[in-house]
Amino acid sequence: MKRPTHRDHRDLGLLALRLGTGAVLAAHGTQKLFGWFGGGGLDVTAKAMDAMGFRPGDRSALAAGCGEAGGGALIALGLATPAAGAVAAGAMAGAAAVHAPNGFFSTSGGLEYPGFLGWSAACLGLTGAGRYSLDHVTQHRLDRTWMVPVAFAASGLVTACVIRKRTQSLARATEAAQTDGADGADGDGATDGPGQA
C-alpha cells in the first residue's frame, strides 16, 4: 500500500480550503443574486449597495453577486483558479472597504470577515488548486503561470477604481447634506431687519 506523501497532504489541504472558502463565497453571492439562504436578492442588494455608495446600485449588486458566486464556485471546483481567486478577492476588498471604518474585528462591524475571505481567495489564486481540481484534469489550460499576474493586476485595478468611485460618491453626498443643513439653518434663523424686503 502506497503511503501518503507530503504532496498528497498538501493537495488534500488545498481541496479542503477550496471547498470551504468557495462554498462560503458562493453562498453569499447567491444571497445577493437570487435571495437564497435568507438573502434579499438583486433588488434589495441594489438598494443596499446604493446606500453604501456603490453606484449605480443595480450594476454594483450584480457585479458583487457574480464575483462572489462565480468566483466561489470556480474556487471550489478548482477551475481557472488564478482568475477566480483574483475576482473573489476583489469583491471582498470592496466589502472590506465598507467595514474598514469600524476597525478590524467583526464584533464591532470591522473588516475581519470579508478581509479573511478575500485573503483566502487570493492565496488560492496564487498557489493554484492542486491535483484534486478541474484545473489539473484539464491540464491547466485555464491556469497558466502568466495568468496569475494578469488576473491580479486586472482585479486590483478594477477594485481600486470601484473603491475610489465609492469614496467620491460618499464625499459628494456628505457635502450635499452639509450644504442643505447649512441652508436650512440659515433659512430658519434669518429675520428681516429694517429696510429688508
UniProtKB/TrEMBL annotation:
Keyword terms: Cell membrane, Membrane, Transmembrane, Transmembrane helix
Zinc listed as a keyword: no
Domain of life per record: Bacteria
A GO cellular-component term linked to this record: plasma membrane
Membrane topology qualifier: Multi-pass membrane protein
Cell compartment(s), UniProt: Cell membrane
Residue ranges, annotated region (Disordered): 174-197
Keyword flag Lipid biosynthesis: no
Major place of residence: membrane
Bilayer-spanning residue ranges: 146-163
PANTHER family: INNER MEMBRANE PROTEIN YPHA-RELATED, OXIDOREDUCTASE CATD-RELATED
Family membership: Belongs to the DoxX family.
Protein name: DoxX family membrane protein
Organism: Streptomyces montanisoli
Lineage of the species this protein comes from: Bacteria, Bacillati, Actinomycetota, Actinomycetes, Kitasatosporales
